[in-house]
Design a protein that fits this description.
CATH class: Alpha Beta
Strand order of the largest sheet: 1-2-3-4-5-7-6
Strand content: 25-35%
Structural class: alpha+beta
CATH architecture: 3-Layer(aba) Sandwich
Order of helices and strands: EHHEEEHEHEHE
CATH superfamily: Gcn5-related N-acetyltransferase (GNAT)
Shape: globular
CATH topology: Aminopeptidase
Number of strands: 7
Radius of gyration: 15 Å
Distance between the termini: 28 Å
Largest sheet: 7 strands, mixed
Helix content: 25-40%
């Protein structure tokens, strides 16, 4: 039976292994970067690991962020949000073994529910590796990062073709 559990630091080896199955080398982040994101969202329970029969199949890492902020790729430090309106979906990875099971949609639904429970207005993400159309099908739309802004600089850390996307959340 599939279990969604909140990611803790003990789960980082599984997260790193799944990441390596799903992303090109230019997108691989360190355990330190994942720990920083988990610390920034400590006790908020917004990152999940999908496990079945002891086998990790997918994960999503998200954290609340202040307007105009998002962690750079592989950022070793992430400051907790002070007045978040946005849940930043930093990373979603589904193993080849889990792709036929709609795990991406299940994890996204979990993140949407959590963002609504937290009273946040939207979810934001950075689409990479040609995933923009997938995210559009999930209700996200491309958003601009003002040229020269800190947000644009962090978006650039994801490489060419990275697209900032947002999805508004309606009332619960």
């Amino acid at each position: 039976m599939l279990q969604l559990k909140v990611i803790g630091t003990a789960d980082l080896p599984a997260v790193l292994a799944l990441q390596a199955q799903c992303y090109g080398p230019e997108f691989l982040e360190s355990a330190e970067a994942f720990e920083a994101k988990l610390r920034a969202a400590r006790h908020l329970h917004c990152s999940y690991l999908a496990v079945e029969a002891g086998e990790p199949l997918a994960y999503v890492v998200s954290l609340p962020v202040d307007d105009g902020q998002l962690p750079a790729l592989d950022a070793p430090e992430v400051a907790p949000a002070r007045a978040p309106r946005t849940l930043y979906l930093h990373d979603l990875a589904v193993s080849p073994a889990g792709r036929s099971r709609q795990l991406g949609r299940k994890l996204l639904r979990q993140v949407v529910n959590r963002a609504q429970d937290m009273g946040l207005a939207q979810i934001a993400l950075v689409a990479v590796q040609g995933s923009r159309e997938y995210w559009q099908r999930q209700g996200f739309a491309a958003a601009d990062a003002p040229s020269g802004s800190a947000l644009a600089q962090k978006l650039a850390s994801f490489g060419p073709g990275a697209t900032l996307m947002r999805r508004a959340l309606g009332p619960v």
